[in-house]
Amino acid sequence: MTSPSTDKPRLSWEQVCARRLDRHALSVPSSEARPADIVATMCGAHAQVLSAAELSIGLRMPDVTRTDVRQALWEERSLVKAYGPRGTVHLLSARDLPMWAGALSAVPSTANGPLTPEQTDEVVAVIEAVLDDAELTVDELSEAVIARTGSWAADLVIPAFTGTWPRWRIALGTAGLRGALCFGPNRGRKVTYTSPRRWLPGFRPADERPALAELVGRYLHAYGPATSRHFAQWLAAPRRWAAELFDSLSGELQAVEVDGTLGWLPAGDTAVPSAPPEGMRLLPYFDAYAVGCHPRDLLFPGSAAERALSGGQAGNVPVLLAGGVVAGIWHQRRSGRRIDIRVEPFEPLTAAGRRELDDQAQRIGRILEAEPRLTVGTVTAGKHL
After folding, report:
1. Cβ neighbours of residue 351 under 8 Å, at least 6 residues apart?
2. What radius of gyration do the chain's Cα atoms show?
3. Backbone dihedral region of 86: left (phi > 0), alpha (psi from -120 to 50 degrees) or beta?
4. Contact yes or no for 285/318 (Cβ under 8 A)
5. Nearest to 88 by CA among 177, 187, 184
6. How many angstroms from the chain centroid is the CA of residue 53?
7. Which residues lie closer than 8 Å to 383 by C-beta, 6 or more apart?
8. Secondary structure of residue 120 in the 3-state scheme
């Protein structure tokens, strides 16, 4: 991507950390925002483990509990559980769903596998129709899809955890990315799927071009300065496609230097807080800050890369954040009303640092509605797969 100007603002890594912490409401929790506002700002909360998403949101707001997040999701419907960045399950702001569907459906994919493009389109259309006013388990959805398409959809050709899945299942994620489905409330232990129109009446995906432009701007607002490669990794998109996208938006972006390295921000969005990055935060699995921020070697310095990354992938381990960088790892184990929290800092704690950890443990207990017990020591729990 060609730089639009040789006169670039210069930021230090410390300023970048302060800016990101501020944008993520991790320096000071946002007292005026609602859960949907927080989720919109951080570009989605990873929700494969729902309690982790609840914690991600709660840490960015004062006096919010998991009950408040669940109310926003299942009662207010200001949040929606859907497929988001990287094709993974996220909590998204319902009002942003048209943008997400428009942008994600534009990302090149080779995930058709055993389906032709025509078969994929047919399955997605059927899913959209049968979920219009229903909440179906995957088995119920399978019966409906096969009945409306044909026996080819039932062919057991997709390797699964146990046995094989029918051919149509490869299109389930595609349907989610195109906005044809989202998640409904669990039925016991079974996941259900339903239509996004039940969250957002009149819903339709936004046009691809403006949706992509808005998503790039939002990503750079929360995680910038960043490059097209960083964006591609965050979105699980081809690097060349992301580079061409950034190039097409060059008039809306501004180049900045971070300790001699080039990155991008939305044009005019170069302000940084006056205060340095401070404070400790215990971020859960796949927290958006740890997953979306780059460069990895600065965010995960020294032993943090070995202990908190998996082949360069972030999020598999909950992390202790200090001054905006990873300074330890932690683990929680819940038993009834009690949560045992074990934190392994990579450097010795000061008395002030220990007090901050105590405060964070108490905050986690309030968010997850449990009694916390904090221990400082080596974390032996494995990484989340």
Report:
1. none
2. 21
3. left
4. yes
5. 177
6. 9
7. 310, 316, 317
8. helix
Cβ atoms of residues 66 and 57 within 8 Å: no
The sign of the dihedral angle between the CA atoms of 20, 22, 25, 28 is positive
Q: Which two tokens stand for residue 290?
A: 């740890």
Residue 361: which of 376, 349, 379 has the closest Cα?
Answer: 376
Phi, psi of 80 (to 5 degrees): -135, 140
Residue 137 and residue 190 in contact, taking contact as beta carbons nearer than 8 Å: yes
Q: Is residue 202 within 8 Å of residue 196, measured between CB atoms?
A: no
How far apart CA 176 and CA 336 sit, in angstroms, is 34
pLDDT given for residue 83 in this prediction: 97
Is the CB of residue 326 less than 8 Å from the CB of residue 319?
A: yes
Q: What is the pLDDT of residues 90-134, one digit of tens each?
A: 999 999 999 999 999 999 986 667 899 999 999 999 999 999 999
pTM score: 0.94
Among 181, 186, 78, which Cα is nearest to 132's? Answer: 181
C-beta of residue 196 within 8 angstroms of C-beta of residue 100:
no
Collapsed DSSP state (helix, strand, coil) of residue 317 = coil
pLDDT band of residue 4 (cuts 50, 70, 90) is very low
Beta partners for 147? none
Q: Are 202 and 189 within 8 A, CB to CB?
A: no
By the 8 A CB rule, do 45 and 279 touch?
Answer: no
What are phi and psi for residue 46, nearest 5 degrees?
-60, 130
- Give yes or no for a contact between 120 and 112, defined as CB atoms under 8 angstroms apart: yes
* Contact call for residues 170 and 113 (beta carbons, < 8 A): yes
Contacts with 241 (C-beta within 8 Å, 6 or more apart), sequence order: 107, 108, 232
Residue 377 to residues 278, 327, 380, Cα–Cα distance (Å): 23, 14, 9
Q: Which helix (H) or strand (E) holds 358?
A: helix 351-367
Cis peptide before 295 (omega within 30 of 0): yes
| 117 CB-near residues (< 8 Å, 6+ apart) | none
The token pair that represents 62 in the structure block:
């004062």
CA dist 214 → 24, 153, 181, 266 (Å): 18, 36, 22, 10
pLDDT in tens, 166-222: 999 999 999 999 999 999 999 999 999 999 999 999 999 999 999 999 999 999 999
Contact 325/301 with Cβ under 8 angstroms?
A: yes
